[in-house]
Structure formats: C-alpha cells, structure tokens
Model the fold of this input.
Amino acid sequence: MHISVQFDTFQLAQVFTISRGSRTEAQVLTVRVERDGRVGWGECVPYARYGETLESVASEIEGVDARSRPELFEALPAGAARNALDCAFWDLEAKTAGVRVSDLAGLGPLKPEITAYTLSLGTPEMMEAQAAKNAFRPLLKIKLGTTDDMPRLEAVRRGAPLSRIIVDANEGWSAAVYLDLAPHLVRLGVELVEQPLPSSDDDALLGLERVLPTCADESCHDRKSLAAMQDKYDFANIKLDKTGGLTEALALKEAAQAAGFGIMVGCMVGSSLAMAPATLVAQGAAFTDLDGPLLLAEDRMEALKFDEDGVHPPVAALWG
Done:
C-alpha cells in the first residue's frame, strides 16, 4: 500500500467572509491510497480554529501507520487528517469490491438533498443584493456573529422573502446578545441558529429558553461530544473534517439521533471530492449544508451535480 498527499488550491467565485476573516481560495489536501493498482481518493480542509495547518495535517497523513479504516482509529484522532484517509479507504474498498460505498455502508440507493447556500458576511446592502440574486434557492444560510447583525438579517429577508433561512453565528455572540436577538430571529422566520456562543462558554445555554432550535457546530466533533451538548443544543452539525471521516460521521449521526438531536450535515469550503462522502450522511437530515462547490470558481472533474432537487450523490468517477 502507498499513501500520498498533495496540496491543492481552488479559487473562489468571490471573496467569502465570516466573522473570523475572509478568503479568496480554498486550500485543501488531496490524499491517494493505492493498493494492487487501485486508488482511493479523499480530501480534507485543515482548519486553524482547531489548531490545524496544511503542513501539520500533511505531516500526520504522511506519518500514519495504518492499512485499514479500523487501524486509523488507533493511529489518528478525529480531525482533517483522519478524514481524508478514512474517505480514501472507503473509496478504495468500494473499488476493490466493485460496489458503491453506499452499499458497503448499508444505505442502499441515495437521493439528492436540498442544500443551504451560504451568503458571505458583508454590509446590509451587499447581503441584500446577494440574497436577491439567490432568492430562487429554497434554503439560505447567513453568516453573522458581529455587533451589527440585525440590519444584515433584515436586509437578507427583504432580498429573499420566500427562502427558508438558517443563521450561523460562528461563536460570535454572548448569551446576552443571543437572548436579545432570538425573538427577532423568530420574527424573521429563521429556522435554526448555529453555534450562538463560543464552545468554551456554551454552558451559558443551560436553562435558557430556546425560542428557536440551536445547533452545535464547534461544540460537536464526534460521539464523545454528545454528553456535553445535552440541554444546550437541539441539533448536531456533522462535518467530516471534525469527525475524522465518514466512518465516525455515520456513527455520530446514529448516536445523535438516538440521543434526541436533530441532524445537520455541514462542510468546510472544499471541492466536490470533500462533499461527496458527506452526501451519504446527509440522507434524511433535517438540514444539509454542502454548498462548498457552489462557492468555487473551479472544481474537480466529474463534480457533484446541483439542481432544483439539491445536491446529488457522487458519480463513481468522482468518489465512492
């Protein structure tokens, strides 16, 4: 078996801004796992919020001593490195067996899922224009988390009066700010708020009346996160770069549902190769947010298909 890792860059269609900063490109790591002439592919997006860099994650991948998915869980913690390798192993297993990954996972035929489309953080005028341009989309996601969020939210609702809306505060609010904003979020038809408080301070959600559902993002990594999420959150946002791959993502989904949490499936800003395994986890999820490829100016060959039915499962030539 041979494992290799490559640095890849995909230009964004426009500058993408959240409360933590802006970017003009998606920098990812592409992993190849080759055995007996067959190659499995995976992609990860190292995230500075979790202490990851392209270099540190590449070093983890290159130094791993694992030849199967079960061995990965002994060799690496949850995170971007294990994600790319886990997904590459799934792809390789499917190619070796001559079946689709969905069959290996016991999921059967897959269907498209409506995905959110994320509006970049900007001035109210800019965000209203973005919303109007994308008002045909059934579900919009708004990046908030600043001291001037209400004008932005009002502007988006004006621009897209019929779209469903979810918001992501990216840990940018305090409990007092959240309590002040929550009734207005409800008034404007917001259906879900992601990570309103910093994960280090989210105990402040205990005992608070949640007038709309809250979703754990930075507070939700893998199954070990679930106990601490109780009585704070209603939904778990499952991202493969946090869970450390499809294997743990599917296990987290099952455990979260058993614990009474709703499911959201999200992503970092990456290519169709990164989203492809997540389409399996998204089956039947209440909220799907796999719009990474829609934000790119360029993508992989055999990219995922997006249309009025949502994001479609990958073709075999891409992954799985």
